[in-house]
C-alpha cells in the first residue's frame, strides 16, 4: 500500500520504525548506475531518517553524489520501504552524538559504550533522509 506525501508515515509505520531496534537495508546508486546495498542502523527523528557512517565507505559517497536512496526495514511479513532524498549532511560533534545514540539503541549498554569509544576516533558523517514515497507491507506496528 503506497502512502501519499501528505501522510508519509502512518502511526503504525512510525511505531514499527521506532519502537524497537530493527536494521535497515539502504540501497544507493553506484557511479555506473548499479545498485549498492548495505545493512545499517538508523534513527527516526520526526519525519526524517538519520543514518551515519565512517568516511570512506561506498554508500556515503554514492549518497553525496546522487542524493537518492531506498531504505527497507522488515521483520517477518511486515515491512516499511521508503524512497528517500538527501536533505542534509553534517559531521563533527553532532554526527558523533548520532552514532552514539544509535549504539545505545542497538547494543547493550556495555557494548555500546565500548563502540562509542571507537567511534570517537573515526571521522563520522550523518545523512538526513526525507522519505518521498512510503510502502507498507503486511501490518507493521
The ordered string of helix (H) and strand (E) elements is EHEEEEHEEHHE
Low-confidence stretches: 1-6
Basic shape: globular
Helix content: 25-40%
Please, how many helices?
Answer: 4
What class, by secondary structure content?
A: alpha+beta
- The Rg value, from CA coordinates, equals 15 Å
Gap between N and C termini? 15 Å
Largest sheet: 8 strands, antiparallel
**Number of DSSP strand runs:** 8
Portion in strands = 35-45%
Please explain how this structure is put together.
By secondary structure, the chain is an alpha+beta fold. The chain is built from four helices and eight strands, in the order βαββββαββααβ. It has helices spanning 11-18, 58-66, 93-106, 109-119; strands at 2-3, 24-29, 35-40, 43-45, 48-54, 68-75, 78-91, 124-137. Strands 1, 2, 3, 4, 5, 6, 7 and 8 form an eight-stranded antiparallel beta sheet that branches. α3 (93-106) packs antiparallel against α4 (109-119). The longest helix has 14 residues, at 93-106. The radius of gyration is 15 Å and the shape is globular. The model is unreliable at 1-6 (pLDDT under 50).
Explain the layout of strands and helices.
Layout: E1 2-3, H1 11-18, E2 24-29, E3 35-40, E4 43-45, E5 48-54, H2 58-66, E6 68-75, E7 78-91, H3 93-106, H4 109-119, E8 124-137
Antiparallel strand pairs: 1-8, 2-3, 2-6, 4-5, 5-8, 6-7, 7-8
Helix pairs in contact: 3-4
Amino acid at each position: 500500500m503506497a502512502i501519499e506525501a501528505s501522510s508519509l508515515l502512518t502511526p503504525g509505520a512510525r511505531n514499527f520504525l521506532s519502537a524497537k531496534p530493527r536494521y535497515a537495508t539502504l540501497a544507493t546508486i553506484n557511479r555506473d548506475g548499479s545498485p549498492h546495498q548495505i545493512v545499517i542502523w538508523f534513527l527516526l527523528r520526526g519525519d526524517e531518517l538519520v543514518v551515519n557512517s565512517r568516511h570512506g565507505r561506498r554508500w556515503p559517497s554514492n549518497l553525496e553524489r546522487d542524493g537518492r536512496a531506498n531504505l527497507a526495514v522488515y521483520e517477518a511479513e511486515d515491512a516499511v520501504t521508503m524512497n528517500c532524498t538527501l536533505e542534509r549532511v553534517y559531521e563533527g560533534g553532532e554526527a558523533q552524538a548520532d552514532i552514539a545514540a544509535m549504539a545505545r539503541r542497538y547494543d547493550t549498554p556495555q557494548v555500546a559504550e565500548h563502540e562509542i569509544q571507537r567511534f570517537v576516533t573515526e571521522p563520522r558523517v550523518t545523512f538526513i533522509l526525507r522519505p518521498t514515497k512510503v510502502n507498507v507491507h503486511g501490518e507493521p506496528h
